[in-house]
Design a protein that fits this description.
InterPro entries: Carbohydrate_kinase_pred_CS, CARKD, Nnr, Ribokinase-like, YjeF_N_dom, YjeF_N_dom_sf. Its EC number is 4.2.1.136, 5.1.99.6. This is Bifunctional NAD(P)H-hydrate repair enzyme. Keywords: ATP-binding, Isomerase, Lyase, Metal-binding, Multifunctional enzyme, NAD, NADP, Nucleotide-binding, Potassium. It is a single chain. By secondary structure, the protein is α/β, with parallel strands linked by helices. The protein contains 16 helices and 18 strands. It has helices spanning about 5-20, 25-45, 60-70, 90-100, 140-155, 215-220, 230-235, 265-275, 290-295, 335-345, 355-360, 380-385, 395-405, 440-455, 460-485, 490-500, and strands at about 1-5, 50-55, 75-80, 110, 125-130, 155-160, 180-190, 205-210, 225-230, 250-255, 280-285, 300-305, 320-325, 350, 375, 410-415, 420, 425-430. The strands form 2 sheets. An 11-stranded mixed beta sheet has the order 1-9-18-17-16-15-14-13-10-11-12, with helices on both faces. Strands 4-3-2-5-6-7-8 form a 7-stranded parallel beta sheet. It is elongated.
Length: about 525
């Protein structure tokens, strides 16, 4: 799914009114009706008090359309105008007049100076936040911040329209009190990038997209900087197997890593490479791990370094399709030296994780030795060592994008919504859960990425697909283990089910059996 920027949304609105020969007021009516339909489907006329807070711009206009339809359908509605400026949008004024014609009680004007005696919200009520939209360009004033605090104090369910008020689409927030904490956000046409970033995702617990009929040609043909990755996006990437294929058709993964006490990382990466579909997997490890690895994974071949406890002299006579390097590797001086020597002679595609990233961070000149489209998979601290500190998530993304372009590498920022970055594009993953915050989870991901590349997946596609499978597997096995008891090995066990889930059809609603009554 494409995530449109603020500027692209404005352009889409403009083109839609021109091509569909409608006014901006008509488009606002369409948006407001979609919000009403969403609420009406769930509430079915229930007389729960609904407090609709409208700003005086177009987001407030959407709120007024909603409030009008709620009133005409008999809901218990109180409408407020957060009247903090003399600048009102044209469409707001039109809809302000319309609601006055249908409502017995006109919207309550909040002057942004008086107290909150008129605003009485109970915990069992509903708040609709339509104060600020995507056009906000400065922090709200103290009175509005106090209003948002009233929302929080009430503990009422809060529904934000398009974006939680006070949240920007393209920059960070200076003060948490500037933003509405929404239980749910209804976003027009596409979600916003800020719904997925660590610093700003907390402002909406859940979100949903409403289709308001923006011009289809514009939506299809407009390239976006950000894409959201779900099953619909990864299914076309899948490569089916032919009946007469053999293991040689699916590549040879070399997992290069391990040190005394950290052979388990290689075990996990090797197993996950096999489970993702690699034809052959060889592990290159210190001598100390030979027996444990041969015993625990009989399907994996093992080559040992001359050193007993660390990798000190990388030498092998196989020709791997891809090399996953860094898991459990260690950063000793001898390992650092042999890692540099290896990079100078290596021609195979690389997936670099863990201590491989740390060694690159210690000597950044090595970055120039990486093959094109090398995949680097840092967690936040590893990323910081690699690109330096950042002040907010937007700066982080820009720094990673610059890093990717400078070295022509793919960077996977691991986290709750892992983001794959290549050149000017961001790909945000939608699978996964907090149970994945456990030792070895990253090693498993390295193996899956390597396994997909071995099978012939293009590097960027392999990364996007692997992150999706990794998270989906964890979501599937979560049902058996829960967050706290989920471990990395469980994720490997679920990879097969994650593949099969790609082709699972959505459950159809069960038909209610109609029984004929026997005449009495």
């Amino acid at each position: 799914m494409k995530l449109f920027s603020k500027e692209q949304i404005y352009q889409g609105d403009k083109l839609t009114t021109e091509r569909q020969k409608i006014t901006s007021t008509d488009l606002m009516e369409r948006a407001g009706i979609q919000i009403f339909n969403w609420i009406h489907t769930r509430m079915q006329g229930a007389q729960v008090p609904i407090h609709v807070f409208c700003g005086i711009g177009n987001n407030g206009g959407d709120g007024l359309v909603l409030a009008r339809h709620l009133v005409t359908h008999g809901y218990n509605v109180v409408t407020y105008i957060v009247n903090c400026s003399d600048k009102r949008s044209k469409d707001f004024l039109i809809n302000y007049d319309r609601i006055k014609n249908v409502s017995k009680e006109w919207p309550k004007m909040l002057s942004c100076k008086n107290d909150f005696s008129e605003v009485i919200i109970k915990e069992e009520d509903i708040i609709v936040d339509a104060v600020f939209g995507i056009g906000l360009n400065r922090p709200p004033n103290d009175w509005v911040k106090a209003l948002f605090e009233q929302f929080r104090i009430s503990k009422a369910f809060t529904l934000s329209i398009d974006i939680p008020s006070g949240l920007y689409t393209d920059k960070s927030v200076a003060d948490e009190k500037d933003v509405v904490n929404a239980n749910y956000t209804l976003s027009f046409q596409s979600p916003k990038l800020v719904f997925f970033l660590p610093e700003t995702a907390k402002y909406t617990v859940q979100w949903e997209v409403l289709d308001i009929g923006i011009d289809r040609e514009y939506l299809i043909n407009t390239d976006t900087e950000v894409e959201l990755i779900s099953k619909n996006e990864v299914l076309p990437l899948y490569k089916p197997r032919q009946k007469f294929s053999h293991k040689g058709d699916f590549g040879h993964v070399l997992i290069l890593g391990g040190s005394y006490g950290k052979i388990g990382a290689v075990n996990l990466a090797s197993r996950s490479a096999l489970s993702s579909g690699a034809g052959l997997v060889t592990a290159y490890i210190p001598k100390c791990g030979y027996h444990s690895l041969q015993t625990s994974i009989p399907e994996v071949m093992v080559v040992t370094d001359g050193d007993e406890t660390h990798i000190a002299n990388i030498s092998f006579d196989i020709e791997p399709t891809v090399i996953g390097v860094g898991v459990g590797l260690g950063t000793s001086a001898r390992t650092a030296k042999t890692f540099e020597t290896f990079l100078k002679s290596n021609k195979a595609p690389l997936v670099i994780d863990a201590d491989g990233i740390n060694l690159l961070s210690k000597k950044k000149a090595l970055l120039k030795l990486l093959p094109e489209q090398t995949i680097i998979t840092p967690h936040p601290k590893e990323l910081e060592r690699l690109i330096g500190k950042w002040s907010n998530d937007f700066e982080k993304l820009e720094k990673v994008k610059d890093f990717s372009k400078k070295y022509n590498v793919i960077v996977l920022i691991k986290g709750a919504n892992s983001i794959t970055v290549y050149q000017d594009k961001f790909y945000i993953n939608t699978t996964g859960n907090p149970g994945m915050a456990t030792a070895g989870s990253g090693d498993v991901l390295t193996g899956i990425i390597s396994g997909l590349i071995a099978q012939g997946y293009e590097h960027l596609s392999a990364t996007i697909f692997a992150v999706y499978l990794h998270g989906k597997s964890a979501d599937i096995v979560l049902e058996d283990y829960g967050y706290q008891s989920l471990i990395a090995s469980h994720i490997i066990d679920g990879v097969g089910k994650a593949y099969m889930d790609l082709f699972k059809q959505p459950e159809q609603p069960k038909e209610v059996e109609q029984k004929e009554e026997t005449p009495q």
